[in-house]
Specification:
8-stranded parallel barrel; Immunoglobulin-like; 25% helix; 7-stranded antiparallel beta sheet; disordered N terminus; TIM Barrel; 25% strand; alpha/beta
């Protein structure tokens, strides 16, 4: 089966599943996403009154259907960089009275036609949990408390009663709150030093927990592992805020640079380094402060993003457009393979990564695209996310992998294949997710599931294409999709399968 041009394979790679290698229970919150007031994510994305498929509130029903199919669990909102200049009260009350403002982060016009009430209603339509971010760029403790009171207090206060008057007598009971966004980044409105931000985050978190000690608060970590303050930022911020926060955020985006596909395919090694560093730093602060609780990670922005190209494109203009086309990356098969590998990495680290948000959801670096007045469709990245979400259950298992290695310019040596598995001992159902990073050759893989007594392959689906840069577009919305992998067989608990070059595969077994 092996193509001669690739790395020679004398015997099949081996992926050994062992219940003793259990990482954690599968955490549904790893399948979160992110909706920001940015470009056409909200306006002319999830919300397009006048579209033939819009409901009475102006939400596109086709988009809601696709989000349900994708299977998002939490949705972070309303930013992102946008939140650092946002006044949440602009987005409540009668729509015709809402102010129109400039959004400095994305140089756009914000009409406030969607605010927290509409977004909470939209989350209910999609079956997702709302994860809220507060503005710690231009605002502080009081505004965060006001928003918390508006969303979560049952009744009998001015803000809770305002929510009821605006149509929602039941509180939203939002559990997860982000204390600002990327405050380490010089691009952030109200950017601060780690000391300044750590002190503000600690004050805000303490006050929010006075209102409700059971909230889950996420303090801003680094906006990338290449930030000059990476590591030190986390240390300083956590030394300020350790007692009052529960999670620290990580953000990471990857892209192919300079035609170096081999390095790009190994991007998850950087994500692993990111996670290891933040866990080590959080645990260092834990021991330094002599605390017993641990701080887990909220990987609340991750994706493929061709940021360099966007920076050079001049798409963020001097004007103040409404719903401009910004950051509308069109993803290839190779992008989806790296993307699937990032999701594998998040699952592999789910003992410490408690939550994650694919950034973003619709039109803006998104798995779902829409055309105003027109159709909506799935990008290549839609498939690994939706399939992993659908098949993963029970315990996450870290497989032992035996494969060949290859050199990358950006990340050193990398394994040719990567994988994670899940197994539910109650139903006896398991799933293995794999990538083949070999750019030239198929890889034959033996998945040793004897310890799980696998007898039957229920489903084997692969994302691959002769053209690794094939994409789904408005003109050809279904060019790329999953295909059944016909090579999968099982003998005595060992599943043998062939993975095409540059591919992502899911195997479900019973
Ligand atoms: O997701 C796009 C942007 O990336 C977000 O607004 C920001 O938090 C990050 O830099």
């Amino acid at each position: 089966m092996n193509d001669q041009a690739g790395i020679q394979q004398a015997r099949p790679d081996r992926v050994t599943l062992d219940p003793a290698e259990r990482v954690a229970d599968l955490k549904p919150r790893l399948f979160g996403s992110f909706v920001e007031h940015l470009g056409r994510c909200v306006y002319n994305g999830i919300y397009e009154p006048g579209h033939p498929l819009a409901d009475a509130q102006g939400f596109r029903r086709d988009v809601v259907e696709l989000v349900r199919e994708l299977g998002t669990t939490t949705i972070r909102y309303p930013g992102g960089n946008f939140v650092s200049g946002y006044r949440w009260e602009d987005g409540i009350g009668p729509r015709e009275q809402r102010p129109v403002r400039r959004d400095l982060a994305w140089h756009s016009l914000e009409t406030n036609q969607i605010g927290v009430d509409e977004f909470a209603a939209w989350c209910r339509l999609t079956g997702s949990e709302l994860m809220m971010a507060v503005n710690l760029g231009t605002r502080g403790v009081q505004e965060a408390l006001d928003l918390l009171e508006y969303t979560n207090h049952p009744s009998g206060t001015t803000l809770a009663d305002a929510r009821a008057a605006n149509g929602s007598p039941e509180p939203y009971d939002i559990r997860m709150w982000c204390l600002g966004n990327e405050m380490d980044g010089p691009w952030q409105v109200g950017h601060m030093s780690a000391d300044e931000y750590g002190a503000l985050a600690a004050r805000t978190a303490s006050a929010m927990k006075m209102a409700d000690p059971s909230l889950e608060l996420v303090v801003c970590g680094s906006s990338g592992s290449s930030m000059p303050t990476f590591g030190e930022w986390e240390r300083v911020v956590l030394e300020h805020a350790y007692d009052s926060v529960d999670l620290v955020s990580c953000h990471a985006y990857y892209q192919e640079r300079g035609g170096d596909l081999k390095s790009f395919l190994a991007s998850s090694l950087d994500m692993q380094y990111f996670i290891d560093t933040v866990v080590a730093t959080a645990d260092h602060v834990k021991h330094k402060l002599r605390r017993s609780k641990s701080i887990d990670l909220s990987f609340d922005e991750w994706n493929i993003w061709y940021l360099d190209e966007h920076r050079e494109s001049g798409e963020i203009t001097e004007g103040w457009p409404y719903a401009p086309r910004l950051l509308e990356d069109v993803y290839s098969v190779a992008d989806a393979v790296v993307f699937g590998n990032l999701l594998i990495t998040l699952l592999k680290n789910s003992d410490r990564v408690a939550s994650a948000s694919l950034a973003q959801l619709v039109n803006v670096i998104a798995p779902i695209m829409t055309e105003p007045g027109g159709p909506s469709w799935r990008q290549t990245t839609f498939f690994p996310f939706a399939t992993t979400r659908r098949l993963a259950r029970g315990d996450v298992l870290r497989p032992r992998i035996s494969t060949q290695r290859y050199d990358t310019a950006a990340h050193g040596e990398a394994d040719l294949i990567d994988s994670v598995a899940t197994f539910d001992s109650v139903s006896g159902k398991g799933a293995v997710f794999l990538v083949n990073r070999d750019v030239e050759a198929s890889r034959n893989v033996a998945i040793d599931a004897r310890s799980l007594r696998a007898t039957r392959v229920v489903e084997a689906s692969t994302l691959a294409d002769d053209d690794v840069y094939a994409r789904n577009t408005l003109a050809d919305q279904t060019r790329v999709g999953l295909s059944r992998n016909e090579t999968a067989t099982v003998t005595d608990g060992v599943i043998e399968i062939t993975l095409p070059p540059v591919s992502w595969t899911a195997v479900a077994f019973a």
